[in-house]
Amino acid sequence: MTARPVLLIVAADRDAQAYRGWCLKNIAAHYDVVLISEAEAMWQRPWIIDAEVADPADEEALLAAGRALRRRHPVAGVMTWTEWYLVPTAHLARSLNLPTSPPSALRRCRDKAASRAAFARGQVPSALCVRIRTETEAREAAQRVGYPVVLKPASLAASMGVTRADTDDELSFAYRHAARAASRQVESPQVLVEEYLDGPEISVECVTHKGRTTAVAVTHKTVGMPPGFEELAHVVDANDPLLPRVAAAATAALEALGVTDGVSHVEMRLVDGRLRLIEVNARLAGDMIGHLVHLTTGIDLARAAADIACGHTPDLTPTRNRAAAIRMIYPAHSGTLTTRDIDTDFAHRADWLERVTFQRDPGDRLVLPPDGDMFTARIGFVITTGTTAAEARARSTEAYRNLTIRIAPA
C-alpha cells in the first residue's frame, strides 16, 4: 500500500471547526495532515496525525515547529487558510524547499495599499487609496478623494474596522474605528482612506498553479450594518453568467500581485456596470464559500489548495450543477443569548436545508459592530441549496424565518 503524502497546515486557533472543519475533513480524505497552531489541537484531532504548538506570527518559532515536523514526517507541502499567516507560511515553505507563491507577492496581498499600487502598475481598475497616520491626514485625504470614503486597516480581513464616512462629521468615528482595529495588527498598524465603490459586491474564487489561473466560481455577497460592511450572506450558482466576464479581471489582479500558486478569493464591485477591484485574499475564502462551491460545482477547493501546495495539478472538473446560499445569524441587538433553535419539523421536512450551525450557546454575550465584530456577534449560519441562485436565496430566507433567536438586552 502506497503511503499518502503528508501536508503541513498552519492555522489560527480561532479558525473554529464551524468554518474550517470542512477544509480539514476534505484534505484529510487525501493527505496525512500535520498541524501547526498556537494552541493544542482539539477539534482537529480526528483529521491530523501530528501537531506542534507555536505562534505562527513568530517566524523563528514557526520555522522551528515546521522543521520538527519535517524531521518526523516526509512533508510534501505547506499551506494555510489563515489570512494573517500567509507570509510566514510562505517563508516556511521556502525554507523547506516546497512550492509556494513568493512571500513578496503575499505581502502585497496583505497590504491593501501595496495591492492598489500593484493594480495601478498592472492597469487593473481598483479604487483611489491614501495611506494616513492621523485623523487630520484622514480628513485631508477624504477631501482629495471625495466623499463618500471608506476607512480601513491596511492589513486586516473579514471587514474588521472597515467604515464608511459620507461627511466630515462622520470621519472622526470612522477614523477611530479603523485605527483601533489596525492597532491590533502586527504586520501594519496603518489606516487607509479609499474611494467608495458603489455597486454590487462579488468575489471570484480562483485557483492558480504555476502561474496559470482558473476562475472557478462567482460569489454574490450581501453586506450590511452601516456604516460598516459586515458580511451577512453569500450565494454561489454553478451557472452564473457573470463568471466569463469577471475571470479576466481576477486573473489580471493575481498576475499584478505576483501570485503564482494557491487558491484565492478575489473581491470586486460592479460600479456602473464596470469591474473595480477591492482586494485579493490569497487563500481559501471564509464564511464557508469554498463549501458552497463544492456543493454547486463539485470542485473541491480545499483539496485543490492541498494539491498545489504539494506541487500537483488540481482537478477542476465540474461534476455538479446547482446553487447554494449561506446566511449568517446575527442578533437584533447586543446582549446575552438566551435561546437559539430551529423548528425541528421544518428542518426534517426541508431536504434542501444543507446545515444549520450554531457557534454560540445560551448564556454567551454577543456584541454587534461597531463595538464588536464577526467573532463577538455571530450566532451561526444556515446553508441552503437550490436549482438556481434565486431559489437557494429564497430558501435561506425561509430557513431564517424558522429560527428562534432570543437576546436579553445588555
Terminal-residue CA separation: 59 Å
- Radius of gyration, whole Å: 21 Å
Instruction: Kindly report the spatial arrangement of strands forming the biggest sheet.
Output: 13-12-9-10-11-14-18-16
Specify the number of helices: 13
CATH class of the domain at 6-98: Alpha Beta
User: Overall pLDDT, averaged?
Assistant: 94
Helix-residue proportion: 25-40%
Low-pLDDT stretches are none
The fraction of residues in strands falls at: 25-35%
Report on the architecture of this protein.
This protein is α+β, with helices and mostly antiparallel strands and 410 residues long. Among the domains are: 6-98, Rossmann fold (3-Layer(aba) Sandwich); 128-195, Dna Ligase, domain 1, CATH 3.30.1490.20; 322-410, ATP-grasp fold, B domain (D-amino Acid Aminotransferase, Chain A, domain 1, 2-Layer Sandwich). 33% of the residues lie in helices and 30% in strands. It contains 13 helices and 19 strands. It has helices at residues 17-28, 59-72, 86-95, 103-110, 112-121, 135-145, 168-182, 243-257, 289-297, 301-309, 344-349, 374-377, 389-401; strands spanning 6-10, 32-37, 50-53, 75-80, 129-132, 149-153, 163-165, 191-195, 201-209, 212-224, 230-237, 262-271, 274-281, 323-329, 335-342, 353-358, 365-366, 380-386, 403-409. An 8-stranded antiparallel β-sheet has the order 13-12-9-10-11-14-18-16. It has a 4-stranded parallel β-sheet with strand order 3-2-1-4, sandwiched between helices. Helix 3 (86-95) runs antiparallel to helix 4 (103-110) and helix 4 (103-110) crosses helix 5 (112-121). The longest helix has 15 residues, at 168-182. The protein is globular and about 65 Å long. The N and C termini lie far apart (59 Å). The mean pLDDT is 94.
